[in-house]
Amino acid sequence: MNDVRWSDSELRKYIDDEANLGWFSDASDREAERVAFRREVRVVLVPVVQGAMLKTIGVVTNPEGLTLVCADLVDDLRYRAAVRRWVLICDEPWAYLASWLGTEIEKAYKATAGKKRPSDKVLKDIERANQ
């Protein structure tokens, strides 16, 4: 197993290559790079984001889920030119990705945590009926 981490330049190249894929591009040859990117995210970003989420909102997050969300965010960069440009020119792209991933996870948490679901009323009714 290769323990050499991606450099900032390699991350920038990956992001640029992914952003330049078109609708009709053959992305099958990119699978090895995507697997390598997800591995890097799991090792480099996930521990940072997990610690931040535990500290800021008090939740434990799943490493594989964080990895998938990060890959999804990077995939969205092809449609978010301003953010993509900043990742490409900023001094610390890994730190920026960690911050962005953390921000997106916090937004998702705040949008769903404590929200009433339709099933909550049904469950409460069942609980009352069993008392």
Spell out the blueprint of helices and strands:
Elements: H1 8-19, H2 31-56, H3 63-76, H4 81-89, H5 93-112, H6 118-129
Helix pairs in contact: 2-3, 2-5
In brief, what are we looking at here?
The chain has 131 residues and is mainly α. The chain is 71% helix and 0% strand.
DSSP strand tally: 0
Helical stretch tally: 6
Which residues form runs of ≥5 with pLDDT under 50?
Answer: none
- Choose one word for the global shape: elongated
The helix-strand sequence is: HHHHHH
Return Rg in Å.
19 Å
Q: Estimate percent helicity.
A: over 70%
Largest sheet geometry:
none
Tell me the domain tally: 1
Strand content of the residues, in percent? under 5%
Summed over residues and divided by their number, the pLDDT gives a mean of 87
Q: What key attributes describe this structure?
A:
single chain, 131 residues, mainly alpha, 6 helices, 71% helix, elongated
Q: What this model shows, in words?
A:
The N and C termini lie far apart (57 Å). Helix content is 71%, strand content 0%. The chain has 131 residues and is mainly α. It has 6 helices and no strands. The mean pLDDT is 87. α2 (31-56) packs across α3 (63-76) and α2 packs across α5 (93-112). It is elongated, with a radius of gyration of 19 Å. It has one domain. The longest helix has 26 residues, at 31-56.
